[in-house]
Amino acid sequence: MIEISHVNKWYTPSFQVLTDCTTSVTKGEVVVVCGPSGSGKSTLIKCVNALEPFQSGDISVDGTKVNDPKTNLPKLRSRVGMVFQHFELFPHLKIIDNLCLAQQKVLGRSSDKAVTKGMMLLDRVGLKEQAQKFPAQLSGGQQQRVAIARALAMDPIVMLFDEPTSALDPEMVSEVLDVMVDLAHEGMTMMVVTHEMGFARKVANRVIFMDRGEIVEDAAKDDFFGKPRSDRAQKFLSKILSH
Amino acid sequence: MNYNWNWGIFFQPNPMGTGTYLDMLLSGLVLTLKTAALAWIIALITGSLVGVMRTLPSKGANWFGFAYVEFFRNMPLLVQLFLWFFVLPELLPKGAGTWLKQLPNAPFWTAAIGVGFFMSARVAVQLQAGIGSLPRGQKMAATALGLTTAQGYRYVLLPMAFRIILPPLTSEFLNTIKNTAVAITIGLLELTGQARSMQEFSFQVFEAFTAATILYLLVNAVVVTAMRFLERWVAIPGYITGK
């Protein structure tokens, strides 16, 4: 579904953020990307739907190359759901309109169809009653669930999550993770940048560990948590799992 | 001070035979309003286009926006009006220059367009700041949903940016009204111009300019009040400036 091969990215000629990153996500797979801050994991996931450009290497999604200038990027992006750390709901639109905007303007759905789909998804994330409110009237956890519903409204073939729980109060983390776990169980292909190791243990098929722009470890979940091969990953795990 | 106050002057006939002196001032007020309205429309439309250009990723658009703003805001308004009114017709091919000079209402069109362009540079800078104040993730979220750049601006960035800059835009609107007074120098008989003629015909300088002052204050009070209502009308529930 996602093929990433030998991707390199520099911010300046002397500052390389991604070094020869190669991995893939197959259909129905849940891949968790973890690593210390500044390790390039958010950058990598943003390269997948071309929100960030990269200088060399290839990324393709469902067989379409994202770094090909001939690719219709808006069309490709409309099939790749993305959830951001800071939700990024559109504050001037009601919750239901947040879900309908791209359905209507990008997919060309009628207003009725978009609203029906939107209400179904809001119901699914448990926020049907909030449809007529504005984003600023919802809690962080609720906003992030709306953001997930907004991405799902586009019928994505894959979902990207960029630290979806990092900006949340601790008591709101689980309501968002619950929605993500359900999604994973339904067979959604997911690439998730997160520090939530509980989530990784529960639903991930594979775990990728990044450090200083490199993919240090790319292993099946049990291998990663059982016996990480690299020292760096071992140290990271011992630090975040010690409490 | 040896001055003969005469507040009854407003109800005496003016020497042009167009009614009373008050009628003269009111006709000036109407011309001020017409000039300011057209200038403000020009300022808003061109200012918005240029402001957006200054935030686009394209280097060419940035450069054009930069050059436009610096050209129009770094020259005194008076000099700009002189340029459009006296210099431009001489620089054009003879036919076009003569046509311009013989244009009916030339001072009106020159004043509206000249003040409009001058103010558009200021609107552009305000809008650029408004767009710049939005979180970077807003544009990313719009892009990730498959919206094109134009759609992202139309449906996501501009509705928020304009809300944020409404208070400073109110000041720019007031400045537009006040700046039309400069057009007296190219022979436009707007409110200040008519007050000046009244003074010359009747020698009642204090009465004439007191009346003009009050009329300017009234007009601007109406604009300020209207903009307050607009701000409240577009406020977003729950959002910082919302209700």
From TrEMBL, chain A:
GO terms for molecular function: ABC-type amino acid transporter activity; ATP binding; ATP hydrolysis activity. InterPro entries: AAA+_ATPase, ABC_ATPase_HisP-typ, ABC_transporter-like_ATP-bd, ABC_transporter-like_CS, MetN_ABC_transporter-like, P-loop_NTPase. This is L-glutamate ABC transporter ATP-binding protein /L-aspartate ABC transporter ATP-binding protein. Residues 2-237 form the ABC transporter domain. It comes from Bradyrhizobium shewense. It is found in: Cell membrane. CDD domains: ABC_HisP_GlnQ. Keywords: Amino-acid transport, ATP-binding, Cell membrane, Membrane, Nucleotide-binding, Transport. GO terms for cellular component: plasma membrane. It is a peripheral membrane protein. Coiled coil: none annotated. Gene3D superfamilies: P-loop containing nucleotide triphosphate hydrolases (3.40.50.300). Belongs to the ABC transporter superfamily. The keyword Membrane applies. Involved in beta-(1-->2)glucan export. Transmembrane domains (TMD) form a pore in the inner membrane and the ATP-binding domain (NBD) is responsible for energy generation. Its main location: membrane.
UniProtKB/TrEMBL annotation, chain B:
It is a multi-pass membrane protein. GO terms for cellular component: ATP-binding cassette (ABC) transporter complex. GO terms for biological process: amino acid transport. Residues 29-227 form the ABC transmembrane type-1 domain. The chain crosses the membrane at residues 24-51, 63-86, 106-125, 145-166, 208-230. It is found in: Cell inner membrane; Cell membrane. GO terms for molecular function: transmembrane transporter activity. Signal peptide: none annotated. It comes from the Bacteria. Keywords: Cell membrane, Membrane, Transmembrane, Transmembrane helix, Transport. Its main location: membrane. Pfam families: BPD_transp_1 (PF00528). InterPro entries: AA_ABC_transptr_permease_3TM (IPR010065), ArtM/GltK/GlnP/TcyL/YhdX-like (IPR043429), MetI-like (IPR000515), MetI-like_sf (IPR035906). NCBIfam families: HEQRo_perm_3TM (TIGR01726). Belongs to the binding-protein-dependent transport system permease family. HisMQ subfamily. PANTHER family: GLUTAMATE_ASPARTATE IMPORT PERMEASE PROTEIN GLTJ, MEMBRANE COMPONENT OF AMINO ACID ABC TRANSPORTER. This is L-glutamate ABC transporter membrane protein /L-aspartate ABC transporter membrane protein. It comes from Bradyrhizobium shewense.
